[in-house]
Write a structure and sequence with these properties.
The protein is an alpha+beta fold. Helices cover about 20% and strands about 45% of the residues.
Length: about 375
């Protein structure tokens, strides 16, 4: 009998000791009198959307001898004028989290200090509550930008642009009735015309063609090894292509990345966010311009937590009764990016602020763990 009484007394002591210290949480709005007490602030996260638009820029530059390509080489498919074109190569969607300014809370331990339990809380670097007790930190989400670069290199003809011209000057000298004719050779340096330089480049290309043909057909007098022949052929082919660019022109490709960040507010209706305008001739432009196709973000709330939301509202989250740790049950949304009214990419994401905020009982918590990116419950022990 004495042993049973001792057990009952011990059980009663433990129960009372756990109830005396409660974690009471108040939402930060306006001024809180509870802030003067011992406690700490924490926030719930909200989700933002990163939109990375990769634009491919094609810059066509005509060769300096393009007008002579047909005459000397028989080439008709050449770049005749400089131009620049843009194309949306890819669109990437990702999410990031940040503190929700509408969901900051102040948590305090009630009861007398001697009766309070020692609780250890863990916050993320941006002030979001991660847990109490053991927990695993989630890695912060980061999105890397891809940058594209390219160079343009049109080789110049190694021949000098000046050439030496020899003119014949005839002088006639008359002495009495005798006429003496004297020829004088005068050297004059003149600049080569574009057609002359084009003719030299074309002749060099034809000579390279002949040398490459002779090399692969064994007309050379030296018996080269296979590796040597392949190297020589490759070098001549590269040189030939460089000279051909002087007639055909070159196309330079670069990739430009434009990043947009949108943090949507909760709405049961579809939302549209204009990002920019886009045209083939000018690329990405300001969204307020009249020309170009509109690139926009569309978000549709899937409202999968409709019943949960109604139940929580009936429960009375705004009641005056003490509340424990606030947490969030996130909801999902369909995210689309449209260009000129056509869907370019769509994906389903979890958006924290589209979910429901609720709370745990204002009781002693033995262990609590929240998801860092959503503020949702991951693990909890309520005693």
């Amino acid at each position: 009998m004495t042993r049973i009484a001792s057990i009952l007394i011990l059980f009663t002591f433990i129960t009372v000791n756990q109830v005396v210290g409660q974690i009471v949480v108040s939402k930060v709005q306006g001024s809180l009198s509870e802030v003067r007490e011992d406690g700490f602030f924490y926030s719930l996260p909200r989700t933002g959307i990163n939109i990375d638009v990769l634009v491919k820029k094609s810059q066509k530059i005509k060769g300096p001898y393009s007008e002579f390509a047909d005459k000397y080489l028989g080439l008709t498919q050449v770049i005749s004028m400089n131009s620049t074109e843009y194309e949306v190569a890819a669109i990437r969607l990702s999410t990031f989290t940040e503190p929700d300014p509408d969901n900051f809370y102040f948590a305090r331990n009630t009861g007398k200090k001697k009766d309070r339990q020692t609780l250890e809380f863990f916050l993320s670097e941006n002030g979001a509550l991660v847990g109490m007790g053991d927990f695993n930190k989630d890695a912060n989400h980061r999105q890397a930008k891809e940058l594209g670069s390219s160079g343009l290199n049109i080789p110049e003809i190694p021949n000098p642009t000046m050439f030496e011209r020899v003119d014949t000057v005839i002088r006639r000298i008359s002495v009495d009735t005798t006429t003496i004719e004297q020829k004088v050779f005068k050297k004059i340096s003149s600049a080569k015309t574009p057609e002359q330089k084009a003719k030299e480049a074309a002749d060099f290309i034809l000579k390279l063609d002949e040398s490459m043909f002779n090399l692969i057909n064994g007309y050379q007098e030296v018996n080269y090894e296979k590796g040597t022949m392949e190297f020589m052929y490759k070098q001549m082919d590269e040189l030939k292509n460089e000279y051909l660019e002087l007639f055909k022109g070159v196309t330079n490709y670069t990739t430009e990345t434009y990043s947009f960040r949108i943090v949507p507010a909760y709405s049961a209706e579809d939302q549209t966010y204009p990002l920019c305008k886009f045209s083939i001739g000018k690329g990405v432009m300001d969204k307020n311009l009249s020309s170009g196709d509109l690139l926009q973000l569309e978000i549709s709330n899937l409202n999968k937590l409709g019943n949960v939301r109604s139940s929580i509202e009936q429960h009375g989250i705004d009641s005056k009764s003490p509340k424990g740790i606030y947490y969030r049950i996130p909801d999902e949304a369909m995210v689309k990016v449209k260009l000129g009214g056509q869907v370019k990419i769509e994906s389903q994401f979890t958006l924290d602020q589209f979910g429901v905020v609720t709370f745990l009982p204002a009781k002693s918590l033995g262990n609590l763990e929240l998801y860092n990116n959503t503020g949702g419950l991951r693990h909890v022990i309520v005693r």
